[in-house]
Design brief:
Mean pLDDT: 93
Low-confidence stretches: none
Number of strands: 7
Number of domains: 1
Shape: globular
Helix content: 25-40%
Strand content: 15-25%
Radius of gyration: 17 Å
CATH class: Alpha Beta
CATH architecture: Alpha-Beta Complex
Length: 203
């Protein structure tokens, strides 16, 4: 299987991870060269699924070939599920990963003895010609560290502790992270779907 998909994102960290996942599945995953010039999709829905599906539909009307879009983020029960779909906007527009991490840690410190359990969630939506073809989701459980550890990854990876490997996500190699992450788990569901008779896409 050598199918090409457009990946509707400008996040360099996500592009790197998804391209590695695609390579192992025999897929060709590319970001549209004109992505920055296309009308942007406002990811302001209250759920990951609505954002992922809305974005996939939006870009599938503007691009040839199937479009893969995702929404993913960190869910912390002690913060009422925040930052959730607002993970990239927790510290306001223009904030860096370090700013968002600092903001999240401040919110947890303000709650004495707060449960530090957390999970990363990913929803992937596949669309073609303005129609949703499939939606997949998965998650990975962990806990929030009191201070960042590790230099790899991006986003909240330095404060997300993954107990089975005894390291933060930012201390894992790309291959190690993709093997256990929310994105890796959701993407493998997509790859299995594309190999199935149910996948009737125009590649």
């Amino acid at each position: 299987m050598h199918a090409r998909l457009w990946l509707a994102t400008t996040n360099a960290g996500k592009v790197r991870e998804y391209r590695a996942l695609a390579a192992t599945a025999g897929l060709i995953l590319e970001t549209p060269p004109q992505m920055a010039r296309l009308p942007a999709f406002p990811e302001d829905a209250p759920t990951f699924a609505e954002n992922a599906a809305g974005k996939a539909l939006h870009y599938s009307r503007l691009l040839e070939a199937p479009v893969l879009a995702e929404d993913s983020g960190l869910v912390v029960p002690a913060l009422g599920g925040a930052p959730g779909p607002r993970s990239a906007r927790l510290a306001g527009p223009g904030a860096s990963d370090a700013d968002r991490i600092q903001k999240l840690l401040e919110l947890l410190r303000a709650r004495a003895d707060a449960d530090r359990s957390a999970r990363f969630v990913c929803v992937l939506a596949l669309a073609e010609g303005g129609k949703i073809r499939a939606v997949f989701s998965d998650f990975v459980a962990g806990r929030i560290l009191e201070a960042p550890q590790g230099e790899s990854g991006f986003g909240y990876d330095p404060i997300f502790w993954y107990e089975p490997l005894g390291r933060s996500f930012a201390q894992l190699s790309l291959e190690e992270k993709n093997a256990v992450s929310h994105r890796g788990r959701a993407f493998r569901k997509l790859a299995a779907f594309l190999k199935s008779p149910a996948a009737v896409l125009e590649f």
